[in-house]
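LAB NOTEBOOK - FOLDING QUEUE
OPERATOR: T.R.
BATCH SIZE: 2
PURPOSE: Compare the predicted structure-token outputs for two unrelated chains run back to back under identical settings.
PRIORITY: normal
REVIEWER: second-year student, initials M.K.

ITEM 1
FIELD SEQUENCE / FIELD STRUCTURE:
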Amino acid sequence: MNQLTFLCCLFAVTYGAVDISPVNPLVKAGEEITLMCRSSKPLEAEDCVWTLNGVAIRVRDTSRYTRSGVLERGECGIKFVADERDQGKWLCTVYEGSEPLSRDTNITLYELPTVSLVPVGNIIEVVADEETILTCRADRGRPEPKIRWLIGDMPVESTETNVIDRTINGHVSLESRLIYRFKAEDHKKPIRCTAGIESGNAYAVATLNVLFGPQADQQESIQYGFVVGQPGSVVVNISANPPPSELTWYIGDVQVNGMGGSSSDGHFTARMVSSEDVLHRSILNITQLTQVDATQTYVLKATSIVNGVPATTEYRMRLSSEPEPVRDAASAGGSTIGIIVAVLAILVILAIVLVTRAKGLLCFKRKIPAEEKQTDREPSETESANQNTVGDEATVEVESKPESKSLSKRLRNMYGSLKTRSAKNKGEKIESDAEAAKPAEKRSDSVIYAELDLREVTGPQVVKDPQNPGTEYAEIVGIVPQDDKEIETKENAKEE
């Protein structure tokens, strides 16, 4: 006997201070069930009363209804093995004070229906592409079941369902009709009718025997690998249920019985081979292929009797001396994967090129001339802040970065160009670069501008040749005013 325990497992409906659980359960006959009524206060045995369909239930240890729960915790439960007598409305009444509190739940004993298919039998015969009506009956289910149709694993929606009987104790009988046009590919698939409720379902199943005439995938096909002067065979695969009753080959003006015949000169012979119940093969053998045979169109007419009516399909073939092309799905999938990998590789390469170009790496690195390599380098933080003092003179060298130097060169070039044009317009003498590089005479009313490089000087100062272009250097000489010298001398004398 299966035991169902619903304590603290299902949702309870809560109203005020009293709960009841489970709420409206579905129970199978013979299963044990516990109904629990909970109060917010401790209870005595006489404080809790159960009724079924308006009739009080005596809860005793010796009866089929026994107590469950702990009264001191406000639990007033009842436990029993369900049968037909227990179906209906259960009411729990708790007396916590002057006003009783009641909550109810409804027990339904479920029964799976008996399901059957019409036409009756393990095999149902239908005709392809013709409207067919099948009937499913679900008798005496409780509660009312839901009917579904499936062909194989595919649900079918073309149904009509009607209630044909409903009893006073809740049993319901249904009838469902499936209106459908079956296809040749439905042959040998299971047809299933299920009638289900929340706690389970029942079903009836049969196998479809679909009748259909010879099937042609395409109107005309090409067969490969034929060589003039050698024997060959033209093969046609035929899918039909029932098997073809008549096969005829047409080669120009020649007709050959495809069931097992030959041409008058014996040049063509034909036969039929059946591999399965719906798969058949017609083979036309050619003793020695001629040039005329290679250019002919070969026609095969296949006829089957379907439900007393002949169904004929025509197959047309042409011959080719080329080898048969490979039509492997795995190869096609491999080609697709190869294309995807190639595209991803190209994208990765493009990304690498863009990054290296943006950062000036690898082949995109800027080439530095030999002269710049000797004089231009990145100053460190120490060098940038370093200042060397020799005697009373302070020499400060500031080395510009390539970007700043390049900018200054461009500015000087632009200034020289403008100066040249201005001199030409005024008719003045144009000073050459060499003359401009000569040291300027010191004059009290002149101002000399220079670029400064901050560079550590470890030895005597080196003055570059003015003819050699490069970083220009300037010597900064500290000058102490005469008044400051007198003040400094006096202070030193006082200290002594």
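ITEM 2
FIELD SEQUENCE / FIELD STRUCTURE:
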Amino acid sequence: HEWNFGFSLINLQSWRNLDILDRYEKWMKANYHYHIFPENSLTYGLGIPLLAMEHTISCWEVETQVTQRDGLGYVSKHELELSSIGAHDLKTSFVVHYDGFSKPWDPKADEETSQMYRWVLDGIRATDYPTGMHKESIQEKPKTIVFLSEYNAGEKWLLRTLDKHPDICATGEHDNPRFGFPYSAANPTKWRQAVYERDSRLNSGCAFSFISRWMSKITAQPEKYCGANPRWEPHLEHHSQRLCYFYNTVMEGRNQTKRIMYKKYFESFRNLDYQALPCRCGVGAKVLIQNQYSEWVRYKPTEMEIDTYELLKETGTSVIMFTRRNRVSQYLAQFFHENAKNVTVDVDSMVKQITKQTTRLWYVRNQLVSNRIPVLHIEYEYCAQNFEACSRSLQKFTGIQGIIDLKTAEFEDLLSAHPSKLVENFDEFAEALRENELDRFIPSEQDTSFM
């Protein structure tokens, strides 16, 4: 027998005296015969026990009888603190209820809120808990890899697949979508500035563009934001503690160049410094993967700008370079959505963009090699057509154990049909590619790699 009441406190003697078991079985049989509730529904899990236990159950006064805390596994430590629930409240609770999707025995569960469960397994009594929830990780620092890709290359498909592996955190969104790193968190430009400016989501605080903008504001008015009586807009207050920590501790209370700021941001990411960045990975993560795009890498950065190659070399970070062999489908993907109709392509713009992408890719790859940065160059088409070989390459490069399951992964179909059926001026399109010695990218009628 089962029910979905969450946490229940049962008086066993009353249970027997009222013959709850018999009442419950009668209602189960009645539901079987008369189909009162669908047996795969939440209504079934709640309705049958409520009928069976009618007039025998009640709620207790939380603060005066049994102290219980709900929401663990869904609500983060930071959100609990916003509700004035701290370590002492959890430590002194009679029950802490992990009713969220992230259970404490899951290796990727939130480290801070699942620590109490592990203490119980270790035989530590509640009265002996060190802090109720600890702040710093005691796990070995994970290996860091930068996933360097291009837009519309199928990169999100592979990142999602990698993120499902228990030893890999490749955004953290698979098991914790609210607190995983956004795909473009490491973007060094002002991308989505307006969105981040008014966005109150916690994981917005993981974006470098968001942090760098606020460092400029705090540097200009440190007393207003991080002084004795800080003044923040209500929808941004939950960012205040981490932004001030980043300013005072990471930035050392002064303005820094963008290169230094990004280096400190990357260091906070590598160390999973939750005091600086609210996004998190599971406690079992052995490999930490950060997504970047080749468009973000400067050709010849000045002393003030971010030098990606220098940063990767200094930190000993490896790179997975993920690209799309079929440049045509990659280019056309920006025009087509779920219900998009056929388009007429500006052939001059197309040729310029494909030429630029090809040149950039060649330059970036050569710079990585010349700086002796370990690189695994892998193509979408190779992974889509050779699951096992691609998986073995990724396993060897990342050093993780266990299978990276590409067979069951959901592919990103960039185009719904062959380019010749989607582009109105396909003949002109193909001729322009031939004239610019890009004919290797013209898809044949039998070619299926455009998908």
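REVIEWER COMMENT (ITEM 2): The longest strand covers residues 143-149.
FOLLOW-UP: none requested
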